[in-house]
User: Which sequence fits this backbone?
């Protein structure tokens, strides 16, 4: 008996293959492939743009503080200058410039489609030249050398100086040539001068500042008694007597600290250093005014890394100088972090409570729909509008009322009646609260209804069900909304320009003076610092490196804060993953 094995699909095999070969463009479009490819391509392009942007920022930020060599350029016309090469680029010379060139150079430029090359040098010495940078065409440079002994000097004022150390005077004595003293002796004298400058800075900014604060506090107490009881009252005379005693004691402390600072400054003025540029123009400054100096062309790899790391430490730990184009950004880091933390503290309860009411308690109807539409529309309002609202409502109305009720003795100088850290945080909380509301509502809706019903069936009240069942399982989604709010709030600049951020804040919002947290103070912000350095400095080229490195720092700060919140969210997910389904 023969059994014939047959394939039930054999009859359809050929027709199906034929049909697959006869697919038309209409069938291809109907199945959605063009849209899939288009969306995938758009996603790939977006990812590449983001990665490219991050690479540009990170690369320029990382190399900003690495020391560069110093070139001595001798021009064709005989001019000689020294500077750090910054970048080179092609350019198109003018007709007059081309006519002045030798025929071989003209032919070379013509062969390059009329383009020549030029290099930008950071020459420094602004107090001598009146410029920080200088362009020179490569064909105009007769010789470019990198001689030993040239130093780059970072100063407290006037930017960097490029030249040679000529002489040093210490203790008020005669200036001695640098070659006679030696590098070790100069470094020791410089370290001593910088330590003395640090002591002067601590006395004037710290100790004397604390005395002035205490004296101002006593004056305000007397003013408060005057407003309450009148200048002719017995209470005022008693308060005036106490104020006189306290003022005398504080005046003694002030005179003692001022005398110590004056003595240190007199000693500081005796230590000077004289530099000479490449053209032998001399510049004498206080030795303590030199932040850092190094022989750029003589550094080995280890020495270069030492300069690189010291610049990073200065950037992260010190205050800005030179119109924010040099120095550090610690006040901006501190202000950004504290403002973002206050933003999260304010926006979280308001956003979560609002979403809880809309989702769990409010009767669904037209009014609730209008509220949801309003919340969604708030997310599209330009941020500068929030800044205007924050200035008008929080600073002028709320802050002005607080000043009249609690700080009348300080008027007409406002305390809370102007921009400050508190009003900035509240303004950005209003800006980001729609994000938290929408994310929280979605997270609450994702909790299965069966869990609510099971909890209620076991005798729990509605609030107990929300607190112990719904909220814990919705917390990962709520954390997502908080992360998004944090990321947007930390990067906003436009509203802050109206309600508290400043170019330079001499006092931090948190310090050692009672009540230690001063929410009424203005503050610095990394985002505004980027805007100020990039678009408000006298020289955009001088500020460009600081723009890149500050941008990288802001991205890193936001990433660290978001990563911390993501870690918390993931732990909550793991905790309730087994009971969500």
Assistant:
């Amino acid at each position: 008996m023969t059994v014939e094995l047959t394939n039930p699909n054999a009859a359809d095999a050929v027709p199906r293959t034929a049909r697959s070969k006869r697919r038309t463009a209409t069938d291809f479009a109907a199945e959605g492939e063009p849209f899939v490819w288009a969306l995938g391509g758009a996603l790939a392009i977006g990812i590449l743009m983001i990665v490219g942007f991050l690479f540009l920022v990170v690369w320029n930020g990382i190399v900003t503080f690495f020391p560069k060599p110093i070139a001595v350029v001798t021009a064709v016309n005989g001019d000689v200058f020294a500077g750090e090469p910054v970048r080179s680029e092609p350019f198109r010379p003018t007709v007059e410039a081309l006519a002045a060139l030798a025929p071989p150079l003209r032919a070379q430029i013509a062969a390059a489609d009329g383009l020549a090359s030029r290099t930008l040098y950071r020459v420094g010495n602004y107090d001598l030249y009146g410029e920080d940078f200088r362009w020179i065409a490569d064909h105009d440079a007769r010789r470019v050398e990198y001689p030993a002994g040239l130093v780059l000097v970072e100063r407290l004022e006037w930017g960097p100086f490029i030249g040679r150390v000529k002489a040093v005077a210490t203790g008020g004595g005669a200036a001695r040539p640098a070659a006679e003293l030696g590098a070790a002796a100069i470094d020791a004298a410089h370290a001593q001068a910088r330590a003395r400058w640090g002591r002067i800075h601590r006395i004037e900014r710290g100790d004397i500042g604390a005395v002035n604060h205490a004296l101002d506090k006593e004056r305000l107490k007397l003013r408060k008694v005057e407003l309450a009881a009148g200048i002719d009252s017995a209470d005022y005379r008693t308060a005036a007597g106490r104020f006189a005693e306290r003022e005398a004691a504080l005046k003694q402390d002030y005179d003692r600290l001022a005398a110590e600072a004056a003595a240190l400054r007199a000693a500081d003025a005796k230590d000077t250093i004289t530099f000479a540029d490449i053209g032998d123009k001399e510049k004498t400054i206080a030795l303590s005014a030199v932040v850092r100096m190094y022989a750029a062309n003589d550094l080995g790899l280890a020495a270069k890394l030492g300069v690189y790391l010291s610049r990073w430490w200065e950037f992260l730990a010190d205050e800005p100088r030179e119109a924010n184009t040099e120095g550090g950004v610690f006040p901006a880091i501190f202000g950004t972090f504290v403002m973002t933390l206050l933003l999260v503290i304010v926006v979280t309860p308001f956003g979560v409570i609002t979403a809880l009411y809309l989702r769990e308690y409010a009767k669904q109807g037209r009014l609730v729909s209008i509220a949801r539409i309003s919340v969604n529309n708030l997310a599209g309002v330009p941020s500068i509008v929030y800044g205007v609202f924050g200035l008008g409502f929080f600073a002028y109305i709320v802050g002005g009322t607080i000043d009249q009720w609690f700080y009348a003795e300080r008027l007409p100088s406002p305390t809370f009646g102007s921009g400050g850290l508190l009003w900035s945080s509240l303004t950005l909380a209003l800006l980001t609260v729609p994000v938290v509301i929408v994310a929280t509502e979605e997270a609450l809706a994702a909790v299965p209804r069966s869990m609510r019903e099971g909890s209620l069936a076991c005798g729990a009240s509605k609030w107990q069900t929300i607190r112990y069942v719904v909220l814990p399982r919705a917390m990962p989604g709520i954390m997502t909304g908080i992360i998004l709010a944090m990321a947007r709030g930390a990067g906003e600049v436009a509203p802050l320009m109206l309600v508290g951020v400043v170019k330079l804040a001499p006092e931090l919002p948190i310090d050692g003076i009672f009540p230690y947290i001063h929410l009424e103070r203005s503050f610095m912000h990394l985002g505004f610092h980027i805007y100020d350095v990039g678009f408000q400095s006298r020289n955009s080229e001088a500020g460009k490196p600081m723009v890149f490195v500050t941008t990288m720092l802001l991205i890193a700060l936001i990433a660290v804060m978001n990563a911390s919140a993501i870690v918390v969210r993931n732990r909550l997910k793991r905790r309730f993953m087994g009971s969500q389904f």
About this structure: The chain is about 60% helix and 10% strand. The longest strand covers residues 80-91. Residues 65 and 310 are 9 Å apart (CA to CA). The chain has three domains: 56-164+288-317, 174-269, 330-579.
